[in-house]
Amino acid sequence: MTLHDRVAVLTGAGGGIGRALALSLARRGCHLALTDTNERALNMTAQMAGELGVRTSQHLLDVASRASVAAFPGEVVPVHGRVDLLINNAGAVVGGGCHPVRVVDLEWLMAVDLECAVTVTRAFLPLLRTRKQASVVNISSLFGFIAPSGEFACSASNFVVREYFTSWRRGPADPPLKVPVNQPDGIAPSIARNARGAPAVLQEIVQRICADMEKLLDMPPQIAAEFVMRGVGAERGRMLVDLDAILASCLERIMPVSYWRLPENSNPRQRDEQ
User: Fold this and answer.
1) CA within 20 to 30 Å of 8's CA: 25, 67, 179, 259, which one?
2) Per-residue model confidence as pLDDT tens digits over 104-144
3) EC number(s) (predicted)?
4) Of 171, 123, 130, 162, which Cα lies nearest the Cα of 249?
């Protein structure tokens, strides 16, 4: 799939991997319909992409709102006329164990991570099916393979996204439409700064998530975005962006019950706490 003079819809484009994906697409000559909930960050991404010579439009969109998502294609078509590529990148974090996490926060996470990917895809499916070549790309994470302690909600949402679209890809043939799933790991994130958690431990959880991610996830988003774009061009069904994601995928298959003991036992801080 060539990306020059195509039109891509990208959710969660305000920063991090979303902005990097937008600029990577723009460098390939792909026109962009960008969404985010942060207007200032969204406008900055659109400006940076526009300076690379492509047509851009920015749309404030709450992907958890079904009504807003249903109306979204009607905003894109008058500007761009078509859609060739949809990248579901918008995501969220909820930290905490099974009991402390509130049901309302769990529902919010599923609405942002899972439901938005499903509803946005369904909203653009009629447009995508009119194109000779089209693709839906879902940005997931390492938590779609493994379930770290205290991150059960994120693991659940990422796993469901991965399996939902994997099952769709293996369903009835739809030749022009490709549905790759990306599992990037090690990407320096901005998502943790908008994390939710159980009220009693919210601040502690958010600080821990940010600190751990800053130490462990140091892959520049620009590098991850280039991996994703090369995978889109090659029409790969699944892309494991980082070596850690590849190792985690293999480890979970070999040791599906006890894999979690290895990273925990290798962490001095966790050994001391035990």
Assistant:
1) 67
2) 777 777 777 777 788 899 999 999 988 988 888 888 776 66
3) 1.-.-.-
4) 162
Q: What CATH fold (topology level) applies to the domain 7-268? A: Rossmann fold (3.40.50)
Parallel/antiparallel/unpaired status of strands 177-178 and 31-36: unpaired
Q: List CB contacts of 141: < 8 A, sequence separation 6 or more.
A: 91, 154, 158, 183, 184, 185
Tokens of 98: 């099974």
Domain spans in the chain, listed from the N-terminal domain onward: 7-268
Label residue 90 left, alpha or beta by phi (over 0 means left) and psi (-120 to 50 means alpha): beta
State the average pLDDT over residues 149-153. 65
| Number of residues in the chain | 274
Which H, E and C letters describe the chain, residue by residue?
CCCCCCEEEECCCCCHHHHHHHHHHHHCCCEEEEEECCHHHHHHHHHHHHCCCCCEEEEECCCCCHHHHHHHHHHHHHHHCCCCEEEECCCCCEEECCCCCCHHHHHHHHHHHHHHHHHHHHHHHHHHCCCCCEEEEEECCHHHCCCCCCEHHHHHHHHHHHHHHHHHHCCCCCCCEECCEEECCCECCCHHHHCEECHHHHHHHHHHHHHHHHHHCCECHHHHHHHHHHHHHCCCCEEECCHHHHHHHHHHHHCCCCCCHHHHHCCHHHHHHC
The pTM of this model reads 0.76
Q: Over 80: is that where the pLDDT of 201 sits?
A: no
